[in-house]
Design goal:
One of its GO terms (molecular function) is DNA binding. This protein is an alpha+beta fold and 262 residues long. It folds into 2 domains: 2-90, 434 Repressor (Amino-terminal Domain), CATH 1.10.260; 97-261, Lipocalin (Beta Barrel), CATH 2.40.128. It is built from 9 helices and 8 strands. The protein has helices spanning 2-34, 37-44, 48-56, 63-72, 77-82, 87-90, 97-102, 221-228, 244-261; strands at 107-113, 123-131, 134-141, 144-155, 159-166, 170-177, 188-196, 203-211. The chain has an 8-stranded antiparallel β-barrel with strand order 1-2-3-4-5-6-7-8. β2 (123-131) and β3 (134-141) form a beta hairpin. α2 (37-44) crosses α3. The longest helix has 33 residues, at 2-34. The relative contact order is 0.10.
Length: 262
């Protein structure tokens, strides 16, 4: 009987450890969603100190707290405790276009590969300014604007499409996954950029990182390079697209950097 109880205890401890890992992962996603620990603690009715203990794994919430969290964010208890979820799972889609306009900040920094064939390893910095439905995309070198595109953006069921034009440089397009954030402002993520190349005005399509704050390109070059590169196991492929997973990874990177600067 004692051996049986020991086996059950070991099994329970294993279940607890596995559940704790998933719970902590999902709790961190909720903190990212709300912006700060303080906001999440207030929203779920616990102290910030107790929430810190949940996050560190020092203690586990009561069943009523777990049930309340799941009801609040419209998820099942099974999903919350057994499945590592990404941020977009907790987010409520914004159906109202006017509400979607409100989540954009006025200014964003953008990062993408230099299209000049002689500078294949360079990463450009650009600025994307959004004022209601109007937007401006400025490509910079050492804080000097070398190209400027202006236009508007449109919202479809799943995408946001920036249609930009410059008399000197032609057309540029940015296509991003429609944010489904129920937070106050869009932090950033990954999108697709199409514009004439610097070298010979041939069309160029590549990934672009959109960030709510400036990123040190030199210090973060390796990770920016990984985000912007297209990777595939086969030597040829039919099409290229950005996945939610990639967008989520960039979002997490930007969020973590912003927390480090606070």
């Amino acid at each position: 009987m004692k051996n049986g109880n020991l086996e059950i205890k070991i099994l329970k401890n294993k279940i607890y450890d596995e559940t704790s890992i998933v719970f902590i992962h999902n709790l961190k996603k909720l903190i990212q969603l709300e912006g700060t620990q303080k906001k999440l603690a207030s929203k779920i009715g616990v102290s910030e100190d107790l929430l810190s203990k949940y996050k560190s794994g020092d203690t586990f919430p009561s069943i009523e707290t777990i049930l309340y969290i799941c009801k609040l964010y419209h998820i099942t208890v099974d999903e919350f405790l057994t499945t590592p979820l990404n941020s977009s799972y907790f987010e409520e889609p914004i159906e109202n276009s006017n509400a979607l306009h409100e989540i954009f900040k006025l200014n964003y920094f953008c990062y993408f590969f230099v299209t000049n064939s002689g500078k294949k390893t360079g990463i450009h910095e650009a600025k994307l300014s959004i004022n209601k439905n109007n937007c401006t995309f400025e490509i910079c070198i050492k804080d000097k604007v070398i190209k400027e595109f202006k236009g508007k953006y449109k919202i479809s069921d799943n995408l946001i499409f920036f249609n930009l034009y410059s008399k000197e440089n032609g057309y540029a397009y940015i296509t991003m996954v429609k944010p489904s954030l129920n937070k106050s402002k869009y932090i950033g993520g990954l999108a697709m950029l199409s514009l004439p190349s610097d070298a010979n005005s041939k069309p160029c399509c590549q990934k672009i990182i959109i960030s709510s704050f400036q990123i040190d390109r030199a210090f973060n070059y390796d990770i920016l390079n990984d985000f912007l590169n297209f990777n595939c196991e086969k030597s040829n492929f039919g099409n290229i697209k950005i996945s939610r997973y990639e967008d989520e990874n960039v979002y997490n990177f930007i969020t973590n950097l912003s927390e480090q600067t606070i």
